[in-house]
Amino acid sequence: MDKLKMHTPDLIDDNISKIALQFPNCITESRSKDGSIKKSIDFDLLRQELSDSIVEGPKERYQLNWPGKREALLAANAPIAKTLRPCRDESVNFDTTENLFIEGDNLDALKLLQENYLGKVKMIYIDPPYNTGKDFIYSDNFTESAEEYLLESEQKDEEGNHLIANTESNGRFHSDWLSMMYSRLKLAKNLLKDDGAIFISIDDNEVHNLRKICDEIFGITNFIAEFVWKRRVSSAMADNNVSSDQDYVICYQKGQLEGFTGNEKDFKKYSNPDNDPRGPWIPDNLTVGMTASMRPNQAYNLVDPSTGSIYPYNPNRVWAFIPKSMEKMIAEGRVIFPEDISRRPMQKRFKNELKSTHNPFSTLMSDKVGLNTEATRQIQQVLGGNIFDYSKPLSLLTVLIPQVCNGDDLILDFFAGSSVTAQAVMQLNAEDKGNRKFVMVQLPEECDEKSEAFKAGYETIAEISKERIRRAGAKIKDENPDATDLDIGFRVLKVDSSNMADVYYSPDAMRQDLIAAMTDNIKAGRSEEDLLFQVLLDWGVDLSLPIKKEIVAGLDVFFVDENSLAACFANNGEITEDFCKELAEYKPLRIVFRDSGFKGDSVKINVEQIFKLMSPHTEVKTI
Fold first, then answer.
1. Among 102, 262, 354, 374, which lies 20 to 30 A Cα-Cα from 445?
2. How far is residue 562's CA from residue 565's CA, in Å, rounded to a whole number?
3. How far apart are CA 279 and CA 282, in angstroms?
4. Which domain of life is it from (predicted)?
């Protein structure tokens, strides 16, 4: 019976496997530091295979480099032995909601989600630190070996802080920020659907560098637009008497975005005063901006066949159609002749003949998107004070999300801040009866003791973020009493060290007598629900699926999404063959047991045979 690996995927191994599919002759073996044999790439052979297109080592090429870039890539690819622990007390509608709030370092969170949400996210929106010289950025540690990183990756500085100040006096001012963004964006791309898109808020300080790393990660041909958002009115305290009033939102697609929805056209002026069977219409110009010398075949006098009135052409702006086409237009009743001969004939534009009901979405964000002052006011309305600085206005998200998302898509924000993205998702669902889902990720960054947030009882930014979702959800529910299916809940999951003892990952490093003395692979203080969520992570199962606990033959069994997965973490030899026969009747797709739940190897072997006979399609594993 196989064991689950209980750590995040090794993306380097995944990349080697992908290359092996195309170039199997380039795969070789090498020894790792511990002496074990592992797959490697023969780069000389690979260069030979790609000799017509590869860029050779020392040759100059156009790219963005900075100190620490390779280490940032290593950080993105390296596996970690961590988990997500559920927290029911801080959640809302834990058992039924499809929304997630993940508390912890977003680099860890993105790694943990790699298998569960691979290719499932339709839209990512993030509002990362702008690197203004006053920001705090994540303190990523790139100096550990892969083995140390796997077991000890806590991503803190020497004083135990997750965030460090990135001031302009720092010699790696831009490099540190780029490394932070690079590793996270590399991982985030994997989560996007093929027709998904990412939106990133940024200002003048790093927009040029951000564009370059996104060109590299997402591909320069997948750049969609750089939207400009007016965030404030002109400031009297402007440097050089120039007020920088805008921020940017850059957008890249994964590769197959169908296009933006656009802005719905205004149909208020359409009417049908003459009861035309073709429906509502508006009068439109019947001329084009061409001169008679440019379009001589469109320079002619137009005659109203009903009255004989003649309308001469304008030599500076001729008719839009040649005579033959105009005759057809008149015969079809598409030309409106005015009673006043001094006025110009018009044409009917029918609503049902429009190629599109929407106008293109402008890169200049419309007045529908409010200023920063709107964001401040919304924080005050929801949380009752100036609890959080630098949030984005709700309207920015309620305008962007419908451009790429349908009614049941998944939206991810891994720099959640005050979780304005979550509020926008719930608001849009209330308005159009959609079922969009969100995943928020926020570090439990401590609030300054002098801040309004701390005085109001919030110890961390994550607490502010969760409370905003709670209050905003309740408010939206109250304002939409008919929206009975509206999901205003969220499951709180917290990044933590693995539930598994160190021996689970490196049994060869422990003395055999110590291993024999151990009765369980599980750390003390971890609950069965903790174990369940690490199993879901390991097996790549959606973390928002419904979970119920039933008693089968006297033992607790978790069922995820009915029979997608069953889990029994009974301990001390409680798992019997009779119990497994009853459990096999449920025919789950997957089932996991606690290794210490079996009395011995013989019982474990018999249990495996029971499932092969009674439920042959069930995948059986242990932890």
1. 374
2. 7
3. 10
4. Bacteria
Question: What pLDDT, on the 0 to 100 scale, is given for residue 203?
Answer: 93
DSSP 8-state class, residue 239: G
Given a cut of 90, is residue 358 above it in pLDDT? no
Domain ranges in the chain are 7-57, 99-140+173-263+362-378+389-445+466-495, 281-355, 512-622
Predicted confidence at residue 144, as pLDDT, reads 46
- DSSP 3-state of 120: coil
The whole-chain average pLDDT of the chain stands at 89
Instruction: Name the pairing type of β-strands 27-31 and 590-593.
Output: unpaired
Using 50, 70 and 90 to split pLDDT, how confident is the model at 170? Answer: low
What token pair was written down for 496? 């933590």
Query: What is the strand order of the sheet 82-86 is part of?
Result: 82-86, 491-497, 100-103, 437-442, 410-413, 121-126, 192-202, 246-253, 223-230
pLDDT at residue 47, as a whole number? 82
Asked whether 245 and 230 are in contact (CB, 8 A), the reply is yes
pLDDT of 162: 59
20-47: b (≥16 Cβ within 10 Å) or e: eeebeebbeeeeeeeeeeeeebbeeebe
Cα torsion angle, 587, 590, 594, 595, sign:
positive
Cα–Cα distance between 559 and 578 in angstroms, integer?
A: 19
pLDDT of the residue at 159: 55
Q: Locate 102 and state its tokens.
A: 């993940």
What amino acid is encoded at 2 in this protein?
D
The pLDDT score that the predictor gives to residue 149 is 45
Residue appearing with tokens 């889990």: 567
Give the span between the Cα atoms of 163 and 155, in whole angstroms: 9
Beta bridge partners of 341: none
pLDDT, residue 141, reads 59
Whether 441 contacts 413, CB under 8 Å? yes
Strand partners of residue 299? none
Can you say how many angstroms the Cα of residue 20 is from the centroid of all Cα atoms in its chain? 29
Q: Show the CA angle centred on residue 306, arms to residues 301 and 311, nearest 5°.
A: 20
Question: Which CATH code for domain 99-140+173-263+362-378+389-445+466-495?
Answer: 3.40.50.150
